[in-house]
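Structure Section — protein described below
Tokens — whole-number codes for backbone shape
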Amino acid sequence: MIKKLNKENMGTSNLGWLESRFHFSFAQYYNPQNINFGCLRVLNDDIIHPDSGFDTHPHENMEIVTYITQGELTHKDSMGNEEILTRGEVQYLSAGDGIFHSEHNLNITKDLKLLQIWILPPKKGLPRLYGSHRFKKEERENKLLNIVSSQNGEAPIKLYQDVNFYVSELDASKELRYEINPNRQIYFVQIEGSSTVNEIVLENGDACEISEENLLKINAIENSHFLFIEMEKR
């Protein structure tokens, strides 16, 4: 079963310095029928305008992955980490009993675009984690790149939760396939371009929930950039 989620039906916010599309209930957007999908609690498609950003703020008992799609993200946190990340690169943290951090677009002319993804941890109070990985474009060109996994997985980034994140930049007319194991489900986000996912058309910004399927078949209608999260079905 595949449930298509049109971007036009998602929650939105425009704070002037920040424009967001909310895949799930967040901030002023609240829909009691749309709180989470399995362990996926938040997925925000954010545009942070020049010389602005999120000042220092706390997180706890949440695993957060940030996937940059345009511009430069400048990160600082209470663990002493400070760095700048660009397109295709990933920042992650498992907040445990509490982390303070800030995220800014310090460029004075160019927007920063990113996906902010929150995953519910398997239990509270786990040791804090922070890190990043600088993936290269060729690692995701016309192939599936596993960027995040569980601690027992094979991805460079490892969370506590039993999840796998995959990304790809797929050339027009090319196809990729992914086998879905029993009792697993997928949340798929079309970041750029357009694709068919098991023959359902997704335009940039659309998403879909996939369950009760054993194969994911992705065909790029035009040059296509996408991310999907594979997780235990709940």
The helical segments are 137-140. The longest helix spans residues 137-140. The chain has a mean pLDDT of 92. The CA atoms of residues 44 and 196 lie 22 Å apart.
